[in-house]
Amino acid sequence: MRTLLARPALRLGLRIAAWAAFAGWLLFVGLVLALRFAVLPAIGDYRDDLERALGSALGQEVRIGRVEAHWRGLNPELLLDDLALLDAAGVPSFTLERVDAVLSWQSLLRLRPVLALLAFERPVLHVRRDAGGNIRIAGIESGGNSDPAFAEWVLEQQRIRIHDATIVWEDQLRQAPPLLLEDLQFGLDNRGRRHRFGLSAVPPSELAARIDLRGEVEGDLDDALERFAGKLYLELDYADLAGWKPWVDYPVDLPRGRGALRLWGDLDEGAGRVTTDLALESLRIHLGQTLPALDLASLRGRLRGEYRSGAWSLAARQLELLTVDGIRLVPTDFDLDWRQQDVTVNGNFRANLLDLDVLARLAAHLPLDARSRELLLAYAPHGRIAELRASWGLEAQALSRYALAARFAGLGVRAASYFPGASGLSGSIDLTENGGKLNIDATQAGLSLPAVFPEPDIAFDKLKARVAWRNRADGLEIDIDRVDFAGPDAAGNAHGKYRYSGDGPGEIDLQAKIDRANGNAVWRYMPHAVNADARAWLRRGIVSGTAHEGKLVLKGDLRNFPFRDPSTGKFLVTAKARDTRIDYAEGWPVIDGVAADMAFDHGMRVHATAGRILEASLPDVSVSIPDFEAADEMLLVRGIAAGPTNAFLDFIERSPVAASIDHFTEGMRAVGNGRLDLELDIPLRRALETRMRGTYHFHDNQVHLVDGLPMIGQVNGRLDLTDRSVSASEITGRGFGGPLRVKVGSNGGKVTVSAAGSAVIGEVGKHFGWPLLGQLSGSTPWKSDIVINKRNAYVLVTSDLLGVSSPLPDLFNKTASARLPLRVERTGPAPGVEQYRISLGNIARGTVLRRDGKWAQGVFAVGDADASLPESGLAVRVAMPQVDGDAWRNFLSADAGGNAGGAAGDGLALGRISLKTPLLKLFGSEFHDIDVGLAPQGAAWKIDLRMREALGELTWRAADDGWIEGRLRRLHLPAASGSGEASQPPTAIDHLPGMSLVVDDLWLGKKALGQLELRARNLRGSWLLEKLRLHNADGELSGSGRWTRGARQRTDLDFELAAGDIGKLLNRLGYEDAVRQGKARLAGSLRWNGPLTALHYPSLAGELTVKAEKGQFNKLEPGVGRLLGLISLQSLPRRLTLDFRDLFSEGLAFDSIEGRLAVESGVMKTLGPLAINGPAVQVAIDGRTDLQQETQDLQVTVRPEVSTLAIGAAALVNPVAGAAALVANTVLKSPLNRVFSYRYHVTGSWSDPLVEKLGQSEPVPSQEQKP
User: PANTHER family from the entry (predicted)?
Assistant: First the structure.
């Protein structure tokens, strides 16, 4: 250094430089002092100069309200207040409240003003674009030819600040409304080539929240883009994206949307990167004019795009979206990059997850090319792909390399053309242009193979597969290492190889083992080579069943499938079937429970060793289709069936044969077994032309041919059947107790059956449930002819009944040697109508009609009765010269439970019943001129009774215990026989119906008894007699009682007989002139064990009270004395020698008769003497009488009166059986001629009493003397 300084020139230069620096410093100090003390204090004097300088720079007149100058530190500061820019008219177009400019000392170095700070306070700036596109800022036009020096000047200033500005943007070119930005804050810092800026503003609240924009740029205006570097940041917490459309052009149509975003941008020497965080909602986007709008409920995530040196990349992180119709893209990450150099393009794509279902559903809204959209629609991919890695390379737009690796779940594509479809696949794939590997491990998966099967969809519950392939120069090789499958239709495994050379369908070598298969799915796995008719039969014919031990062999060139020539290849499926149901032909009964060996190649063969049709077993049956591809495929069924005959009858009826033989077997039933040999030839294209041949063998069967006929036993023979006929040369058996023979034939759909045999009449009665036939005996030959045509059967059964004897009364009586033609005929006079006609010689005939399966009308006429059909129901009419009702009662039992209108057979209601006969013998009596009609009336029968002995109407209801009511105008009952022969004992009964009867005129023989009223009802096991009243002009009998039914029957009866004139009442009852005048009352109660209709003397008990007055016993004729002789004492003189003729023989007059009687065990006894007081005599009777044995033991005391007045009877009980048997027939007749008292002992029977005189007794007190 010292050496250098020692040089003179250098020392001189240093001195000059030092003086120059000192001089510059002095100049700077002088300048500062000048500014401080000379220029700045007088800055206001330079306002006009400033206005002119600014106006010249801006090209517009400028006005400044006030100018001030200060020092800010060492820098001078200029303050301009109320600065305004004037337009051409001199009106302010832009004003600045204050401008603060701080001068930088760098201005001296650059020889032009450089500001350390330029600040604007609350400016209001109008920016306008006119219709021509010219922009004016504060009235100053800003064109494309503006001087760039202004931009350079701005970038030279150290700091620029704008505070609280307002900007109004008017765009007449877009015809948009004015846009107002308020509270605008702006800052710009310049440090050489580095420029930092920041801007924030508040737009209208309905458009957005505050806008925050920041950035940093390094570079000069004249630098190329590659030399620029910088960063940009934009934050917008809320914006109505659609609301900005009047001022902003989006790259896509955006009718609706709002949300927030943040954006980061980087630029570095030509490489750029943009990162955006999105949080948008209610977004509607049109990505193409012809595409439907995409409506998003939300869109969130981060997007990043980058370009560097010819390479582009696009990435997304946690990108998710939700459409308004529920399509959701779960958070997804992906990276896409590609690089193009000349004609070479390389690309890579990576994704953590792709939801193909979502992408496919969004595809309709995305701007895809036509081919891509066509492929998406055709294949409809769905499922999820994870850990996807893909790469590719293109050379001159041709794919030169590719690689793909991924895992997938639920993957599926739609089958298209020869490409198979799939669904629910899970596994992994790894492939390149040279080959690849595929592993599948899926549940609930499916494959679709439309190129192989007409029913292409195959479902799997489980599917595992290992498959590899190689792309070789001569074609594609696929190695199926192993496939394990299990699904609803089948389960098993397979392995094999497939080669495709590009010519034809390829070659295959596949073997499969089938562990389980469903028979009803076989049709689904028949390839296209099997014709539609055969496939249709497999679908319908194999209804159910399972198969096991199945095997599949498929080997050869598939162009030769199904390999009819064994040298070209092999196709064979075998399996063992069990529990299989085969519906071999429509309309025929199915085969169930089949155990068989099955084989499928170019045809089908099923050989069954077990099975059944209905209830018949099948030990050996084969079903086959010889050739699936034949022009006229045939289904052949051959077999033998054994089992119950009923099953084969059912088989025929359920098959088409039934129609061809007019349902001949429809009503047949059988017991026993047989065997059927059957052959069926069924054209699959013409099933109606099925041919059948069969023979059924009966072995000791029981067969029921038609309704109404009994089972035919010991049936043997054979029945030959075809699809059009039925025949039998001779079937033998036994029916109705005798042998029979049956022949069957058919012709043109008409079936004829001829039968003949012998019947035991008793067996006929048992079969039809006719008890009357049980009274018949013998057997008779019969014949029957049946013709069935169009489901209309004509039946004729005839017999002469030779050999049958009948003990039935009247016309139905017959000897075995007599012939009586019987004819039963069934016809069908009209569709849906059956008519049955029955005739039995000229004795009886009947007709019954059946319409639409229901009995409609019927009549059964006996004798000369009318046989015409009634309008509805069943009419029974009888018209005979006489009817022995008593004889018929011995054959018929009473129907105690029949209902009015009851149904006959299976629904024919019994209508009117009529009986007409001149003479009816019933209950030992004869009734004349009978015309009785019975007709149903609701739940009752109305009886119209017309005969000589009775006239009236009755109603009978059978419900509960029965009820009869009505009114008879006349009822004449025959009198009891007086022959003295023992009468038949009364029929024991255990039930009586309730009743309410009125008989206006009741006669017993020739005795007019008057009007009868009777009312009774059943209550809790008892028959209550509520009212009994027999009334006439001379007296009245009334009573009530109870009959208790059951195991211990009992009858209780209360009665009262009142006679206003004893003589007339007795005359009415047939005892003429027995008593003259007199009044009487007989009352009491009786009880006995047994029914009301049968008096049981051993248990008879009760009490009676007798009162009579003012009458006289007349002289009685023989035959009457048994009832009244005792009281009249008329027979007393016959047994005694005393002479009482003047007192008794000509009649006994009485003033009163009184007494009380008791009955116990059928013996009646007096309770105190029975006293008879009269004007001539007083009589006292005491003792007992046996009512059943008709014996007596009486003490009779007689005291004649001097007045010789006749004594009266004391116990007038003639109408009641108990009162009539009060005493036996009296044996004394002679009149008393003494006035003394005498006692007598009367014993013996009523018909022959014994009288013993005991002697004179003490006087008997008269009625007046009694206390």
Answer: PROTEASE (PTHR38690:SF1), PROTEASE-RELATED (PTHR38690)
779 with 761: CB under 8 angstroms? yes
DSSP state at residue 725: -
DSSP codes, 187-217: EEEEETTEEEEEEEEE--TTTBS-EEEEEEE
Q: What is the model's pLDDT at position 892?
A: 58
Nearest partner of 742 among 786, 781, 777, 707, judged by Cα: 786
Angle at 352 between CA 348 and CA 356, to 5 degrees: 90
Residue for token digits 């030279």?
A: 156
| Local structure of residue 1232 (DSSP, 8 states) | B
| pLDDT reported for residue 730 | 85
Beta bridge partners of 1165: 1158, 1184
68-79 b/e (C-beta count within 10 Å ≥ 16 → b): ebeeeeeebbbb
Q: Give the three-state DSSP class for 1039.
A: strand
- Residue 909 CB contacts under 8 Å (≥ 6 apart), including other chains: 872, 873, 874, 901, 902, 903, 936
> Residue 864: enclosing H or E segment and its boundaries?
none
Q: Which residues contact 615 (CB under 8 A, 6 or more apart)?
A: 643, 644, 646, 647, 650
- Predicted confidence (pLDDT) at residue 1006 exceeds the cutoff of 80: yes
Q: Which two tokens stand for residue 548?
A: 């096991």
Tokens, residue 420:
């198979």
| HEC sequence for 513-581 | EEEEEEHHHHHHHCCCCCCHHHHHHHHHHEEEEEEEEEEEEEEEEHHHCCCCCHHHEEEEEEEEEEEEE
Tell me the C-alpha distance between 113 and 1134, whole Å.
193
Half-sphere exposure of 722 (CA within 13 A, CB side): 10
Given a contact cutoff of 8 angstroms between Cβ atoms, the answer to whether 836 and 797 are in contact is no
CA angle, 961 as apex, 956 and 964 as ends, to 5°? 25
Q: Shortest CA distance to 496 belongs to which of 507, 519, 480?
A: 480
d(CA 546, CA 40): 114
Q: What is the C-alpha to C-alpha distance for residues 1136 and 386, in angstroms, rounded to an integer?
A: 146
- Please name which of 682, 674, 698 lies closest in space to residue 617, comparing C-alpha atoms: 674
15-19, 408-412, 502-506, 940-944: the lowest-pLDDT one:
15-19
DSSP class of residue 114? -
> How many Cα neighbours within 13 Å face the side chain of 1018?
15
3-class state of residue 844 by DSSP: strand
In terms of pLDDT, which residue wins out, 158 or 748? 158
Which CB contacts under 8 angstroms, 24+ apart, belong to 394-400? 394/344, 394/345, 394/346, 395/343, 395/344, 396/343, 397/343
Whole-number Å distance between alpha carbons of 811 and 865? 13
> Taking a C-beta distance cutoff of 8 angstroms, is the pair 164, 190 a contact?
no
Residue 235's Cβ-count burial label (10 Å; 0-12, 13-18, 19+) is middle
CB 67 within 8 A of CB 79: yes
Residues in contact with 1131: Cβ distance below 8 Å, sequence separation at least 6, in sequence order: 1121, 1125, 1225, 1226, 1227, 1228, 1229
| Interior angle at CA 1172, CA 1169 and CA 1174, nearest 5 | 155
Burial of 6 (0-12, 13-18, 19+ CB in 10 A): exposed
Amino acid at 725: S
pLDDT at residue 1039 greater than cutoff 90:
yes
Cα 796 versus chain centre, distance? 48
Q: What pTM was estimated for this model as a whole? A: 0.51
Q: How far apart are CA 812 and CA 1025, in angstroms?
A: 41
DSSP state of 584: -
Q: How far apart are the first and last CA of the chain?
A: 199
Q: What is the mean pLDDT of residues 651-656?
A: 80
Q: Which residue has the tokens 């639409």?
A: 852
- Closest by alpha carbon to 987, among 891, 1093, 887, 897? 1093
